[in-house]
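Design request, tokens follow.
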């Protein structure tokens, strides 16, 4: 049996480089060495090496987070070279990375999204966040004008494209979706952060957040959240795997927060946990991602 040649690309130049390296380490450990010939490339450092070798590669796993990884840029590069790659395409990544564009599309699909404010109509408390970044980098919850004036400066160090959103207090959940045109919703995890919200520290520091699967008493809630995840995946034309984060307020209304097109693969990552709960071992999960890339 000819082994498929899988290339794991990691690193990148975004603020999430460190997370990308951790994710790639998990993927490289999890890939079945009996099934695949495996190469790894730290981008952009190994770009020349990759260009020398890419014609022998069957599938690329781009384990890149944030700008240049999840914004359609690297996907366009792969398209130009004619290489098959995992996860979403140019369009899906470009739209999902732009929070304003994503919310406009999803609002038209009937999904609740937080109200957006301008400098002229701020309502506190509110959330400051970069329009085009992930991992909750530069995201702040502020309760008054004084705090706003301080945190806006911090956020602008990360991005000059900032949005202000309605703060919604409630329970946070994540919905992992697996597939291309006929995706399946994986079990829902509730995120119980030790911080005010599921921020960068909570996402990537062991012990800073507790992830709990919903039990049978909340089956109806689980189905509602899964339906939102599926609708997001299909509306944004996502592929392979996506992860949609939502929040349920005190009245039970469920609001879309953000979507990840290349979810993390670290030891504390959510999608591998959900896949395991659904019956996939980690290596089977990676096998399926490769199968979806080859469809």
């Amino acid at each position: 049996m000819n082994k498929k040649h899988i290339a794991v690309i990691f690193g990148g130049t975004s603020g999430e480089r460190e997370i990308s390296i951790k994710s790639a380490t998990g993927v490289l450990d999890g890939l079945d060495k009996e099934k695949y010939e495996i190469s790894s490339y730290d981008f952009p450092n190994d770009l020349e090496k990759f260009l020398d070798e890419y014609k022998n590669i069957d599938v690329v796993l781009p384990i890149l987070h944030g700008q240049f990884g999840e914004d359609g840029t690297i996907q366009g590069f792969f398209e130009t070279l004619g290489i098959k790659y995992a996860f979403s395409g140019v369009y899906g990544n470009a739209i999902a990375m732009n929070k304003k564009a994503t919310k406009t599309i999803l609002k038209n699909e009937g999904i609740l999204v937080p109200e957006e404010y301008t400098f002229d109509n701020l309502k506190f408390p509110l959330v400051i966040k970069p329009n085009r970044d992930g991992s909750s980098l530069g995201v702040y919850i502020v309760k008054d004008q004084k705090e706003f004036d301080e945190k806006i400066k911090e956020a602008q160090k990360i991005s000059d494209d900032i949005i202000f959103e309605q703060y919604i207090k409630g329970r946070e959940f994540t919905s992992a979706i697996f597939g291309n045109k006929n995706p399946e919703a994986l079990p829902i995890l509730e995120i119980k952060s030790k911080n005010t919200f599921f921020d960068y520290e909570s996402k990537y520091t062991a012990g800073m957040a507790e992830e709990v699967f919903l039990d049978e008493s909340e089956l109806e809630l689980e189905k509602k959240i899964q339906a939102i995840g599926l609708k997001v995946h299909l509306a944004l034309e996502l592929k392979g795997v996506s992860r949609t984060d939502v929040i349920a307020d005190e009245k039970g209304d469920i609001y879309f927060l953000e979507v990840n097109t290349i979810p993390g693969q670290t030891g504390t990552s959510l999608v591998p946990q959900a896949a395991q709960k659904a019956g996939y071992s980690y290596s089977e999960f990676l096998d399926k991602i490769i199968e979806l890339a080859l469809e």
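Comment from the thread starter after seeing the answer: thanks! The radius of gyration is 19 Å.
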